[in-house]
Amino acid sequence: MAAKQNFISGKWVDGSGVTQNINPSDISDVVGDYTQASKDQTQEAIAAAKAAAPAWGLATPQARADALDMIGTEILARKQEIGTLLSREEGKTLPNGIGEVTRAGQIFKFFAQEALRVEGTYLNSLRPGMDVTITREPMGVVGLITPWNFPAAIPAWKIAPALAFGNAVVFKPADLVPGTAWALAEIISRSGIPAGVFNLVMGRGSVVGQTLLDSRDVNALSFTGSVQTGAKVAAAVSARGGKFQLEMGGKNPLIVLDDANLDAAVAGAVDGAFFQQGQRCTASSRLIVHAKIHDAFVEKTVAAIKALKVDHALKEGSQIGPVVDETQMKQDEDYIRIAREEGAELAWGGERLNRETKGFYLSPALFTRTTNNMRINREEVFGPVASVIKVDSYDEALSVANDTEFGLSSGIYTGSLKTAKDFQRKAQAGMVMVNAPTAGVDYHVPFGGRKGSSIGAREQGRYAVEFYTTVKTAYVNAG
């Protein structure tokens, strides 16, 4: 089977090497071969985007809306096919894979309409005879670097607004999951947008990603990934005066108070902490539980975890699939070991599992007897690993929840409206969930956090216009 190619300046082109895409549910299953872009090819893609950006930026909003709507329509029509591909290469269960692709299609359709709603402002000048208008214009060339955990949704919520607001795109997907990205790119290639407006460059971050960071022709760069890589992105792009947007994860707290509906809280904790293998930046990795219900919460949570079916992502009835690869598996195991060495008690899980096919299966791990200064509660594990922190009051729970370098999502289960409103005001996070899992946000609202979780404008919804456009103030002497 021929390797899937990169898409540069309206053409499919071979790269400098090939990588195999391996199914984490069955490592004997090769999803496909995908071309790796070289530094020179990445520079060609940037040049193509730079050449195409002016005309696309001046295209009518209707032309952009029509293209995005066409993309969204085809994604939705093929959600079963692409969702299966996504689950096969990333490891999340098939219902989750189809759901994510559905969301990607909905995002394109949402931004098709946003392309028609870019607003400006008219003001009366302080000087007689002067008119003042404030308008938004595209940034120009936008580099997009996306992670492996949401290979359809995160590319969609970056690509769609970039194109909707008139930018040209150079898109680098995560090297672990090129299949879904290539499928999206193939649909975009047939949407009618001009050559060079959208470019796909697959390959290593050290080659493709670094070239995007270093290029002065990339006017803005949006990155989702690790804190360590995000720091490098910020340093490189700011050094050359570029605009950047970073989403870098979280260590999200979920408070469970003694007045909460305990069964609902357990269900929300299990969903937020372990579904999609805990490989979500919004996962509930710190479960902060009131002492009065601590033992009952742990008992019910362990029972719920034991009942989860961990198996092949495409197998009917699977609730938890494999972690994405051996590197991630070892990272999860390292944190499980570190937690035990620090004195945490493993209530359940944390073991490699054997299934019919050889894959990266890990039983969901729950730790108790943890404190907030342990590494397991300070650093993002990014796997099906959660810990319980016992507290004696709501005030202590709030203090522990906010005591983190991250600030993406924060949740609480309580029967008190007063407490819920207080938490909503005082939680130091970009997203707050009351009586709901910390993971999961609608596609038409802003996504992002505070502190070490996010830097720059919010993603998604109408707020996306802030990053993908620049503001122009124009004076006209009408006198």
Summarize the structure in words.
The chain has 479 residues and is α/β, with parallel strands linked by helices. The chain folds into two domains: 6-248 and 453-477, Aldehyde Dehydrogenase, Chain A, domain 1 (3-Layer(aba) Sandwich); 252-434, Aldehyde Dehydrogenase, Chain A, domain 2 (3-Layer(aba) Sandwich), CATH 3.40.309. It is 38% helix and 24% strand. The chain has 14 helices and 24 strands. The strands form seven sheets. Strands 14-17-18-13-12-20-21 form a seven-stranded mixed beta sheet, sandwiched between helices. The protein has a six-stranded mixed beta sheet with strand order 9-8-7-10-11-23, with helices on both faces. Strands 5-6-24 form a three-stranded antiparallel beta sheet. Helix 3 runs antiparallel to helix 6 (178-189) and helix 9 (262-274) crosses helix 10. The longest helix is centred in the N-terminal third of the chain and has 21 residues, at 94-114. The radius of gyration is 23 Å and the shape is globular. It starts with 5 loop residues before the first strand and ends with a strand.
